[in-house]
Amino acid sequence: MTGKIISLIIALICLFITYKYLGGESFFQMIAILFFVLALIWFSEEWGGYSGAWPWVSGVSQIKASPPILLNIFGWIFLIGIFILEILIVVSSK
After folding, report:
1. How far apart are alpha carbons 20 and 22 in whole angstroms?
2. 7-63 pLDDT, tens per residue?
3. Which of 30, 45, 50, 59 shows its CA 20 to 30 Å from the CA of 36?
Protein backbone atom coordinates (compact mmCIF):
# COMPACT_ATOMS: atom_id res chain seq x y z
CA MET A 1 0.00 0.00 0.00
CA THR A 2 2.81 2.42 0.78
CA GLY A 3 4.32 1.75 -2.65
CA LYS A 4 1.09 2.89 -4.27
CA ILE A 5 1.04 6.09 -2.21
CA ILE A 6 4.69 6.87 -2.94
CA SER A 7 4.21 6.21 -6.67
CA LEU A 8 1.15 8.48 -6.70
CA ILE A 9 3.09 11.29 -4.98
CA ILE A 10 5.95 10.96 -7.49
CA ALA A 11 3.45 10.95 -10.38
CA LEU A 12 1.74 14.08 -9.06
CA ILE A 13 5.10 15.84 -8.74
CA CYS A 14 5.88 14.87 -12.34
CA LEU A 15 2.53 16.25 -13.47
CA PHE A 16 3.11 19.51 -11.62
CA ILE A 17 6.57 19.93 -13.15
CA THR A 18 5.23 19.13 -16.62
CA TYR A 19 2.40 21.65 -16.31
CA LYS A 20 4.61 24.39 -14.93
CA TYR A 21 7.58 24.03 -17.30
CA LEU A 22 6.22 22.41 -20.49
CA GLY A 23 2.62 23.55 -20.80
CA GLY A 24 -0.81 22.08 -21.41
CA GLU A 25 -0.31 19.69 -24.32
CA SER A 26 2.65 18.00 -22.66
CA PHE A 27 0.62 17.81 -19.46
CA PHE A 28 -2.06 15.67 -21.11
CA GLN A 29 0.56 13.48 -22.76
CA MET A 30 2.21 12.96 -19.37
CA ILE A 31 -1.15 11.95 -17.87
CA ALA A 32 -1.44 9.18 -20.47
CA ILE A 33 2.12 7.98 -19.86
CA LEU A 34 1.76 8.01 -16.08
CA PHE A 35 -1.56 6.20 -16.32
CA PHE A 36 0.21 3.26 -17.94
CA VAL A 37 3.20 3.39 -15.55
CA LEU A 38 1.00 3.54 -12.45
CA ALA A 39 -1.05 0.62 -13.79
CA LEU A 40 2.16 -1.41 -14.01
CA ILE A 41 2.93 -0.62 -10.37
CA TRP A 42 -0.55 -0.84 -8.90
CA PHE A 43 -1.96 -3.79 -10.85
CA SER A 44 1.14 -5.91 -11.48
CA GLU A 45 -0.54 -8.95 -9.90
CA GLU A 46 -3.47 -8.79 -12.31
CA TRP A 47 -1.34 -8.03 -15.39
CA GLY A 48 1.25 -10.64 -14.52
CA GLY A 49 -1.31 -13.32 -13.81
CA TYR A 50 -2.93 -13.04 -17.23
CA SER A 51 -2.50 -16.01 -19.49
CA GLY A 52 -4.55 -16.72 -22.53
CA ALA A 53 -4.57 -16.68 -26.30
CA TRP A 54 -4.49 -13.97 -28.92
CA PRO A 55 -7.14 -15.04 -31.40
CA TRP A 56 -5.94 -12.64 -34.10
CA VAL A 57 -2.38 -14.02 -34.19
CA SER A 58 -1.77 -17.07 -36.33
CA GLY A 59 0.48 -19.89 -35.19
CA VAL A 60 1.52 -20.12 -31.57
CA SER A 61 -0.51 -17.48 -29.80
CA GLN A 62 -0.50 -18.63 -26.20
CA ILE A 63 0.41 -15.93 -23.67
CA LYS A 64 2.25 -17.18 -20.61
CA ALA A 65 1.94 -15.47 -17.25
CA SER A 66 4.64 -12.96 -16.36
CA PRO A 67 6.12 -12.64 -12.88
CA PRO A 68 4.23 -9.75 -11.23
CA ILE A 69 7.37 -8.55 -9.46
CA LEU A 70 9.02 -8.02 -12.85
CA LEU A 71 6.15 -5.81 -14.03
CA ASN A 72 6.29 -3.89 -10.76
CA ILE A 73 10.05 -3.33 -11.13
CA PHE A 74 9.62 -2.12 -14.73
CA GLY A 75 6.90 0.29 -13.57
CA TRP A 76 9.20 1.72 -10.90
CA ILE A 77 12.09 2.01 -13.37
CA PHE A 78 9.87 3.93 -15.79
CA LEU A 79 8.47 6.16 -13.03
CA ILE A 80 11.88 7.01 -11.56
CA GLY A 81 13.26 7.57 -15.07
CA ILE A 82 10.47 10.01 -15.88
CA PHE A 83 11.03 11.76 -12.55
CA ILE A 84 14.77 12.15 -13.23
CA LEU A 85 14.05 13.54 -16.70
CA GLU A 86 11.60 16.02 -15.18
CA ILE A 87 14.23 17.18 -12.67
CA LEU A 88 16.71 17.61 -15.52
CA ILE A 89 14.17 19.78 -17.34
CA VAL A 90 13.80 22.00 -14.28
CA VAL A 91 17.56 22.31 -13.80
CA SER A 92 18.23 23.06 -17.48
CA SER A 93 15.47 25.70 -17.63
CA LYS A 94 17.18 27.89 -15.00
Report:
1. 6
2. 999 999 999 999 988 888 889 999 999 999 999 999 988 777 666 665 666 655 566
3. 59
pLDDT digits (tens, 9 = 90+) for 58-88: 655 566 777 888 889 999 999 999 999 989 9
- How far apart are alpha carbons 45 and 8 in whole angstroms? 18
For 62, the 3-state DSSP assignment is: strand
* C-alpha to C-alpha distance for 49 and 54, rounded to whole angstroms: 15
The burial class, CB within 10 Å (0-12 / 13-18 / 19+), for 14 is: buried
Neighbours of 66 (CB within 10 A): 15
Domain ranges in the chain are 2-93
Whether the model pTM is above 0.90: no
- Find how far residue 10's CA is from the centre of its chain: 11
For residues 65 and 48, the answer to whether their CB atoms sit within 8 Å is yes
